[in-house]
Amino acid sequence: AALPAGVLALLLGTLLWAPWRALHGAPLAELSGDQDFQLFLHKNLEFTRKIKGDVAALQRVVCDTFQLCKEEELLLVRQDLGIAQTPLEQCHSRAFQAEACFSQIRAGLRAYHGSLATVLELLPEHAGLVETLQLDAANLSSNIQQQMEDLGLATVTYPAEGQDPLPAFSSRFHHQVGGFFILANFQRFLETAYRALRHLARL
């Protein structure tokens, strides 16, 4: 249903300028009363939590299968691999802007959808879980895109991380460590995305 212009203006104003911290008593009754937006937030909070659980399950598989369990033991190898954390600074800066944050989440989900192919090659016997994770990442990205369109938020295009070919690992061990860090980075990415959605749900 279309929102009254005044409610839409307040909603967009709140989304565009809400700092990461509390909004110092701003009149947010209209925003919290927007049932469609709240439904989107709560549904996708649950969805993000489910994806985090699946990433954690794959991290346990990598730990059990390759004995790669602790990041601090692998940091030197990581430097050789060039696997960077997908940025989400727009989701936790004090100048938090919903359209920029949502756009970064979508770009990151696309990047991880691609880089999970590295994990799929490593764990062919767990292909079902990896492919479910890829599908869920694509669906969460699609949900956010749809919500941005529904709210009239502009889509901010960030340079698509992970659009390059997957790294060519020089050894089987490097491939295993690469998969480990892709999952570790994805888990951190999801934690930040989850906090951003939860922050909006509390407004």
Automatic annotation (TrEMBL):
An individual GO BP term: immune response
Q: List all membrane-crossing ranges.
A: none
Its chief place of residence is secreted
The entry's keywords: Disulfide bond, Glycoprotein, Growth factor, Secreted, Signal
Q: Which PROSITE patterns match?
A: INTERLEUKIN_6 (PS00254)
Say which family it is in. Answer: Belongs to the IL-6 superfamily.
Which Gene3D superfamilies does UniProt cross-reference here? 1.20.1250.10
Q: Name one GO molecular function term.
A: granulocyte colony-stimulating factor receptor binding
* Compartmental location: Secreted
Species whose genome carries this gene: Steatornis caripensis
Cellular component aspect of the GO annotation:
extracellular region
Q: Does the keyword Signal apply?
A: yes
Protein name stated in the entry? MGF factor
Secretion signal, residue range per the UniProt entry: 1-25
